[in-house]
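Hello forum,

I keep getting stuck at the same step: I have a sequence, I want structure tokens, and every attempt I make locally crashes halfway through. Rather than fight my setup again tonight, could one of you with a working pipeline run this one for me? It's a single chain of 306 residues.
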Amino acid sequence: MDNSLNPQKCLESVRNETLSPFSYLKKASECLSSPDLLPIGQDFIIRALEELPLFKKQYLMLQDLLRTAGLYPYLKKYFTDLSPEKEFVLDVYKSNFDESFVFHSMQARVFNLLMSGRNVILSAPTSMGKSAIIDALLASNKFNNIVIVVPTIALIDETRRRIQTRFGNLYQIIHHGSQIKRKEKVIYVFTQERVNEREDLVNVDLFVIDEFYKLSDVKDVQSRPRAFALNIALSKLLTVSKQFYMIGPYIDAVQGMSILTREFTFIPSDFKTVALNIHKYNIAPNDTSSKNKTLAKIVKENTGKV
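Reply #2:
Ran it on my machine without issues. Output:
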């Protein structure tokens, strides 16, 4: 990447006073105005928040750029002196399940598509907050029977705990084959194998598949049995469900989705909500000893950091 468009390098220049804070934000604004450079512009803005005192004289400009970038949650997190107009924006993007949680623009777009009845396949980084959209859908009270398919039993427990805390008073949470449906409003949290074992999955309003890319793992010998199971679960859910939402990591395109037999909106989004510093180490691929020593050093140097 050209260093003039490298947010990490440019922020170092601001610290060293070889680049003015205004010039830094001007670069951010130029990137945000170009669709191809939008993720870089978001990176510029997020890094500026790490060094907020450096931009004290440019607070209003930084607030406007946060709004342009669609990073509305950071307006609430980092600034208390917002104008009535920006406070109104925060109110518009406030989530329906937690008054302290504000959607960013991509979350709001996906949520509105799903609420309008569209099928959505979302491909985005982990930090984008795909699970928050699920919680917003549950809080909408629009769906009675929901199936959430996760790849591992550990994720069943994690998802169940999160949903139970927020929506246990609204829904019965079924996560094991022995549980019997007792309420009208039910959320099934299953692996694909448990979906295939269940015989009472009918009249499903919405199903969610986490890590949908695993549908294509049929070529990998080790992953093949689970990939076949996931494809069978998908076919089963398509016959009994009104709507779907599939989520996975960022990729440019999806192929082999003819099985869906329904219209869907595919959203590939490299929407940035965090900044990543990438460190490269000149270690040979098969040099396990050096890899372990380097990893041990990294862990030691970063104890207590998140």
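The beta strands are 120-123, 145-149, 172-174, 186-190, 206-210, 244-248, 265-268. If your local run keeps crashing, start a new thread with the error log.
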